Amino acid sequence: MPIFKQVKIFQKIKESLSKTRESLIGQVRELAKIHRTIDDSFFNELLEIMILGDMGVETSEKLISELRRAVKRDRINDAEKVVDLLKESIKNILGSGLKYTGDVPEKRPYVILLTGVNGSGKTTTAGKLAHRYKDAGYKVMMIAADTFRAAAIEQLEIWAQRAKADLIKQSEGSDPSSVIFDGLERAIARGYDVVIADTAGRLQNKAHLMKELEKIKRTTLKKVDSEQVLSLLVIDATTGQNGISQAMVFNEAVKLDGIVLAKLDGTAKGGIVVAIKDRLGLPVLEAGVGEKIDDLIPFDSQAYVDGLFGDVASEER
Fold this sequence. Notes:
By secondary structure, this protein is of the alpha/beta class. It has 12 helices and 8 strands.
């Protein structure tokens, strides 16, 4: 069943991008007004703006090269037209439309495995996901697979109560893979539709913790088929380019299906969305756009681009 209406997605993404739109595209448009001619100085300044907007050095340089070729090929001499070209280039990287809707597949339980570094927003994301699916009429279970901290279990319990979802937990220090295994056994036996597993935060440079995450994924696949599992990395949007290195290492460990970009509304670094897709080929599937329990939405790349550039076309879709 559809979880969100398109217009709601567009409005929330547009609102969450206000800081990025002002700092990134606002500066790009101002640059276009100042420059009467399109020369090396214009492109150098544009490159700097894009890098500072967290599109990353490699992605920014790639986009600038495309713009240079297009300007030369089409003999463009109006700097403001370059803004339109930039928008199209970003669209090409991200792809168009809402390919991910958050819908539950027919084969169940649908297992959403949340990973990420400490403080990225995993537990909050787990609670928001649980609320979404519970509100849509699904039978939802949450698994507290972060067993390193008693506070983490307590925090997830609070979210489970808010979302009116069931919670599987064990004592602090339990083997997280065992918690996952037991939770999935119960979910299968009792006919749950959606299972959301919150794993412990771990730094991507700690090899033994990444090995443990690999074990969690293997354990999950012993109980359900791979098509029933959605592996998501939760990245704090305010961390900017550090999110790239996080995604690379976590992807090696658990073969990610996509990214949850938390706290998108609180950052001027929303350009990270473009860098992640360009560098890693991983799509942003969910976006955290506020602190309320329903402020997590399936990510729509078209709405992102239109919201980034301050367009209104998507509002009528």
